[in-house]
UniProtKB/TrEMBL annotation:
Signal sequence, renumbered to the chain: 1-17
Domain of life of the source: Eukaryota
Keyword Signal: yes
Stretch list, region Disordered: 225-244
Identification of the protein by name: Tyrosinase copper-binding domain-containing protein
Record-annotated Tyrosinase copper-binding domain positions: 104-309
């Protein structure tokens, strides 16, 4: 999601005097120069501050939570986040077993909710607000039920688009969100565009994730639909039954290249109403003469397309998605 700009809105704050407080200025990893959207965010902050000053509440830029980009976290901070996600995956679910007998953990509660409320969560007017609420609830569970001290990180797609497999997010080491899936044969992800853009080509993965902190993760709910082959069917038509299997992924540069910062910048700046903004986000109408015209929503999802079906979720609410998936 709109990557960085949404972090601005995460700073629900009222304001003290300018200049902007240090608290609201994210700590950056110097390895990544600011991209056009980062710069847009920075230039917008004074306006956020002025707007907040018109509000009558106790939030300030000093006490607002700041969500940070994955690589802007230190390695120990990344590990703390991973530990909290693993903790959530080890706690019992709260969803009634009559609704989702396949939910095996507190983490699965969020997966189940995203599945059952998918239509509501994704319509034009709800998409962004409802996902922000969803991420807020997930972050709250990490903090209150698993002792996580930080906030939900997000993913700036642009930082990793040229080489996602070797990025700090997907390189498969202990401080990554897990590595690529094992090589498997599948063609790619079907897109509703004219040839040759009717498919995001496979990047060669698609099998089980074998490296990193989530290599032993058991996915239980779903699939309702899948983009890779050989995924066992769920025993229930609503996908809520137990279907234990590995986490599959295809960390996909062909998808990521449709999510570089210039696409996000154009999405934000070139659409004057919610309808055109939403349609562009979904890749409609198709961009002409563009090799990666997926739309940010698809492009972001399928950076880790696999099973669960490319629905990422957590992190990166950066745009929308993020790190693990649901
Ligand atoms: C601001 O909020 C406080 C506490 O809710 C309320 O008592 C006060 O009337 C509000 N002031 C304005 C100008 O709305
Ligand atoms: C994992 O990768 C990150 C990003 O490249 C690096 O900063 C970190 O030191 C690596 N950790 C190990 C244990 O190699
Ligand atoms: C973004 O940049 C890429 C690479 O230069 C280009 O192919 C693409 O058309 C650009 N997209 C937009 C929306 O400007």
């Amino acid at each position: 999601m709109l990557v960085n700009l949404w972090t601005v809105s995460a700073l629900l704050a009222a304001v003290s005097a300018s200049p902007l407080s240090k608290r609201a200025t994210p700590i950056r990893n110097g390895f990544y120069p600011l991209d056009v959207v980062d710069k847009l965010e920075e230039s917008t902050m004074p306006k956020v501050q002025a707007w907040l000053a018109t509000k009558n509440n106790t939030c300030t830029l000093e006490n607002a939570a700041v969500r940070r980009e994955w690589s802007d976290l230190s390695v120990p901070e990344r590990e703390d986040y991973i530990k909290a996600v693993l903790c959530l995956q080890s706690k019992p679910p709260k969803v009634p077993s009559s609704t989702a007998p396949g939910a095996k953990s507190r983490f699965d509660d969020f997966v189940a909710f995203h599945m059952t409320q998918a239509m509501m969560l994704h319509d034009t007017t709800h998409l962004f607000a409802s996902h922000r609420y969803f991420i807020w609830a997930y972050e709250k569970a990490l903090r209150e039920e698993c002792g996580y001290q930080g906030y939900q990180p997000y993913m700036n797609y642009d930082r990793y688009a040229q080489d996602p497999i070797n990025s700090p997010m997907f390189n498969g080491n202990a401080s990554s969100m897990g590595g690529n899936g094992a090589p498997t044969k599948y063609r790619g992800i079907i897109m509703p565009f004219k040839k040759p853009y009717d498919m995001i080509k496979s990047a060669g993965g698609g099998g089980c994730v074998t490296t990193g902190p989530f290599k032993d993760m058991v996915v239980s709910l779903g699939p309702k639909s899948t983009v890779v082959d050989n995924v066992p069917r769920n025993p229930r038509s609503d996908g809520m039954g137990a279907n234990p299997r590995c986490l599959r992924r295809d960390v996909n540069k062909n998808s990521a290249l449709g999510a570089t910062a210039n696409y996000t910048y154009s999405l934000i700046m070139d659409n004057k109403d919610i309808d055109s903004f939403y349609n562009r986000y979904l890749g409609q109408p198709p961009l002409k003469n563009d090799n990666h015209p997926w739309g940010l929503h698809n492009a972001g999802h399928y950076i880790i397309g696999g099973d669960p079906g490319g629905v990422c979720i957590f992190p990166l609410a950066s745009t929308t998605c993020t790190v693990t998936r649901c």
